[in-house]
């Protein structure tokens, strides 16, 4: 297979085992809130089945998503919470409401003028043209003024809502980046993206139409009811009393709509998760010929989303007919009451006609409310999901201002370290203690799931330990200033994540102020300048999404250069697990040696050749530190490390034999 740079690549090297693809859920399996499959019986000791070192199965995200959502908070409570975190919506709201009320008052001027024309302009069979013209002029001014007031109200609300939603997206995005590693696992990404994008978008659509309708029409209804009461309290009472049953019907439907649209938003998050995984794993899907399996999984998510939308649509379908029926009943009741009470109540013909106009004016917003109620519930459901995301507590709180790390390579002291991905969950690290001298080269070794990557993330404070402490350069990691922590202690992950830009721009993420010459110097100092020069455009070569135009090893070369320009005093490297060609592996080894020079370095060693060169080897087994020492001493001891080393030698020999 040829890559994005026109070079040959080994198809098999990039393909993980087929078992890595999440299976299609069967009827006998439990479905967790994120659309993942988990066995209904817990593993012994409370560990979630399928948990790995990198992405443990964590079903503690009920706050973020809920498979069978319950309307825990009503629309008013969500509105109150939303206004509290979005000051843009509150700013100037008094003026906006006042303008809406004035606009609503302007709408009732026309029925009043109609009454005046009938009662004053038409007297005794003659027409008083002067009065009619004056009233018509007043009506024209009122119509223009009402249009201006309504337009201004809509404009102010539109601007305020878009500014608020921009701020809400920023808050949600910033919150996502501050969440713990458990909430940022691959299984959650589709849901998190949904919260920041589509859920907020439902609010944008609502404010552009539904929100304006609620405010403007609410003002019209208030002005209309007040005017009707001035004409005749009894007729006004008839109109309001006939509409009351409609409000009861709407309240009943609202309860079901809230639950229905909560489920729709949940299904959207599930669908985004499945689609995201399928797109990112397209090479695996094609490489193993499992399109049918992944299609079934995707189609099942689409079908669940379809079913949820149909359920919500069926409930919403009752709204418009209900509004039409009650509107007709209200007009009929007012006409009958007006004709009956008119002579006795002293109502003129003009007043009865005006009252019918007012009733229609009152019912227009009522009918429109029935149409926008389902849109409102969609927005409420989306708003609640975003608020639930913001309610997820931040586990890693940066100190203010914090203590800077010393510039020299630090020693690291870990004491009694324990960690679990969720409170009360299985511990992935238990009572880990060790000391790393300054400038030491350390290898972290262990079988898959032993806790290596989790320990590395704790060392870089992507999460805080459940128990114990990490002291770097004499300072507790929780007290280190965040800027100093990120500049002095850098982690290079095994996937070598790259952004969809150039090689040079990806390196510059290590230090934004770095110029092109500094970037080229980084490749030279790491001994990989010949490789970067071989690229079609050198450091200006685009790497594609997630660096897909580069091989796994080449992506890590770029990641090492990024770490070099950051100039950390402590380096943590997670070796790439995928096989790389000998030339790239040689480049990686030399680059790592150059980068580690004069620094404290910790390497998660998936190839034990790295451990052979380390000054200290730490051996993890099921979350516990079981051995530590030099390579030769650990091999001679015949323990866990010796077994891992023997297995690695066997695999290496078998691979070499197959290649020969």
From TrEMBL:
Its main location: membrane. Keywords: ATP-binding, Cell inner membrane, Cell membrane, Membrane, Nucleotide-binding, Transmembrane, Transmembrane helix, Transport. Residues 1-52 are annotated as: Disordered. SUPFAM superfamilies: ABC transporter transmembrane region (SSF90123), P-loop containing nucleoside triphosphate hydrolases (SSF52540). InterPro entries: AAA+_ATPase, ABC1_TM_dom, ABC1_TM_sf, ABC_transporter-like_ATP-bd, ABC_transporter-like_CS, P-loop_NTPase, Type_1_exporter. One of its GO terms (molecular function) is ABC-type oligopeptide transporter activity. Residues 95-378 form the ABC transmembrane type-1 domain. Residues 13-23, 37-51 have a biased composition (Low complexity). It is a multi-pass membrane protein. One of its GO terms (cellular component) is plasma membrane. Residues 1-10 have a biased composition (Basic and acidic residues). The chain crosses the membrane at residues 93-112, 132-150, 205-229, 235-253, 314-339. It is found in: Cell membrane. Residues 412-647 form the ABC transporter domain. PANTHER family: ATP-BINDING CASSETTE SUB-FAMILY B MEMBER 10, MITOCHONDRIAL, ATP-DEPENDENT PERMEASE MDL1, MITOCHONDRIAL. This is ABC-type multidrug transport system ATPase and permease components. It comes from uncultured Acidimicrobiales bacterium. The lineage of its organism: Bacteria, Bacillati, Actinomycetota, Acidimicrobiia, Acidimicrobiales.
């Amino acid at each position: 297979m040829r890559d994005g740079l026109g070079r040959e690549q080994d198809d098999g090297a990039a393909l993980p085992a087929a078992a890595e693809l999440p299976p299609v859920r069967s009827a006998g399996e439990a479905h967790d809130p994120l659309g993942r499959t988990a066995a209904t019986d817990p593993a012994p000791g409370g560990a979630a089945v399928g948990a790995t070192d990198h992405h443990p199965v964590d079903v503690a995200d009920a706050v973020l998503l809920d498979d069978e959502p319950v309307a825990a908070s009503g629309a008013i409570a969500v509105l109150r919470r939303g206004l509290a975190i979005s000051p843009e919506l509150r700013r100037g709201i008094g003026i906006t409401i006042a303008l809406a009320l004035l606009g609503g008052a302007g709408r009732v001027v026309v029925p009043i003028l109609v009454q005046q024309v009938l009662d004053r302009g038409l007297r005794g069979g003659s027409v008083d043209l002067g009065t009619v013209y004056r009233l018509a002029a007043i009506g024209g001014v009122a119509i223009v003024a009402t249009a201006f007031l309504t337009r201004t109200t809509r404009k102010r609300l539109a601007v305020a809502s878009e500014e608020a939603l921009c701020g809400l997206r920023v808050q949600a995005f910033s919150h996502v980046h501050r969440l713990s590693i458990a909430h940022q696992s691959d299984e959650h990404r589709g849901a998190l993206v949904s919260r920041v994008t589509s859920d907020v978008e439902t609010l944008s659509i609502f404010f552009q139409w539904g929100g304006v309708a609620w405010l403007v029409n609410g003002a019209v209804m208030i002005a209309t009811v007040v005017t009707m009461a001035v004409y005749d309290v009894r007729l006004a009472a008839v109109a309001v009393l006939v509409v009351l049953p409609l409000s009861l019907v709407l309240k009943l439907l609202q309860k079901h709509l809230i639950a229905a649209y909560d489920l729709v938003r949940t299904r959207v998050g599930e669908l985004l998760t499945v689609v995201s995984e399928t797109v990112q794993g397209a090479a695996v899907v094609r490489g193993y010929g499992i399109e049918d399996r992944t299609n079934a999984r995707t189609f099942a998510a689409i079908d669940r989303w379809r079913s949820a939308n149909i359920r919500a649509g069926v409930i919403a379908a009752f709204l418009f007919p209900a509004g039409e029926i009650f509107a007709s009943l209200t007009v009929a009741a007012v006409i009958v009451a007006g004709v009956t009470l008119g002579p006795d109540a002293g109502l003129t013909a003009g007043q009865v006609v005006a009252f019918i106009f007012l009733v229609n004016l009152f019912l227009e917003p009522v009918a429109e409310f029935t149409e926008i109620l389902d849109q409102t519930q969609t927005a409420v459901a989306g708003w609640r999901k975003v608020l639930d995301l913001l309610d997820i507590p931040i586990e890693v709180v940066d100190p203010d201002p914090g203590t800077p790390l010393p510039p020299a390579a630090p020693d690291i002291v870990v004491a009694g370290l324990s960690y679990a991905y969720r409170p009360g969950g299985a511990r992935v690290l238990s009572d880990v203690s060790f000391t790393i001298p300054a400038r030491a080269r350390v290898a972290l070794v262990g079988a898959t799931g032993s806790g290596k990557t989790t320990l590395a993330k704790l060392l870089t404070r992507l999460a805080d330990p459940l128990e114990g402490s990490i002291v770097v350069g004499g300072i507790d990691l929780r007290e280190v200033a965040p800027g100093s922590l990120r500049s002095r202690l850098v982690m290079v992950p095994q996937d070598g994540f790259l952004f969809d830009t150039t090689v040079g721009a990806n390196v510059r993420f290590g230090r934004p102020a770095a110029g092109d010459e500094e970037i080229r110097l980084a490749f030279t100092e790491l001994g990989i300048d010949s490789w970067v020069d071989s690229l079609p455009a050198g450091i200006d070569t685009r790497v594609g999404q997630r660096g897909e135009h580069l091989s796994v090893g080449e992506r890590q070369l770029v990641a090492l250069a990024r770490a070099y320009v950051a100039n950390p005093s402590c380096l943590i490297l997670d070796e790439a697990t995928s096989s790389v060609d000998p030339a790239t592996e040689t480049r990686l080894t030399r680059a790592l040696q150059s980068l580690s020079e004069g620094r404290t370095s910790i390497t998660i060693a998936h190839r034990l050749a790295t451990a052979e060169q380390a000054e200290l080897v730490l051996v993890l087994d099921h979350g516990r530190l079981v051995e530590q020492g030099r390579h030769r001493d650990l091999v001679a001891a015949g323990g866990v490390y010796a077994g891992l080393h023997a297995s690695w030698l066997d695999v290496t020999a078998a691979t070499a034999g197959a290649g020969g």
